[in-house]
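Troubleshooting: if your tokenizer reports a length mismatch, compare against these two reference records.
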Amino acid sequence: MARLYSNENFPLPVVEGLRQLGHDVLTIQEAGQANQSLSDEAVLAFAYAEGRMLLTLNRKHFVRLHREQREHCGIVACTVDPDFAGLAQRIHEAIEAHAQISRPLIRVNRPAS
């Protein structure tokens, strides 16, 4: 299973769902870095230092960082989805599908209604 780091705006129920699926998820709050106005670069650098893929809803900035910054363990960029259990399951499946890729950029979208 994956080692993940969720940034500040990532929903805790999705984190909990990923943990139930066997993933090792550290939140920015648990790392003592919440409410510090850290830059996206600093968040990604922390995830890299911890050997974790980053979970984020901030797609635009982190997709750009994926292209610009070589040192990261992967980025899982998600769309907002109030179906937390469904989002956790889609993230789990996407991570499993990209398990052999180094530094993946994984996009997890809310399903069309």
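Reference record two:
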Amino acid sequence: MLEDLLNGAGRSMLFGVVGVGLMAAGFGLVDLLTPGRLRDLIWVRRNPNAGLLLAANQLGVAGIVFTAILTSYHDFAKGLASTVIFGLIGLLVMALAFFVLDLLTPGRLGEVICADEPHPAARVSAATHFGAALIVCACIA
């Protein structure tokens, strides 16, 4: 019994590390998509647009990781690998959604996200990121 508990705890730690790593990659993705440094935009300038986009991205990545773990294979290695693969696919799909939205709308979306005044486009972009993540979640399940 103790061995099963420790084994499960170890697996949880590994899934947690993978999930946090994917969320860090999501942070990097949003940082690449927006001009300027995301850390400064959110934590120094308190930019609501960038904060909203990053929050939607982080929730989307967490949703993908959650779904991948929940539906993971009985084989731990396959489950961990599928979590990484689907997490990376999710990031790619979210980036694609950002670029498509940028093409469909006037101006540069990254510049709108960096504007200090709240902008409705930030809500649309955040919803697009989260919606893209939900699509990947559905593909996993």
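Descriptive notes for reference record two:
- The radius of gyration is 17 Å.
- Helices lie at 2-33, 38-44, 48-70, 76-104, 109-114, 120-140.
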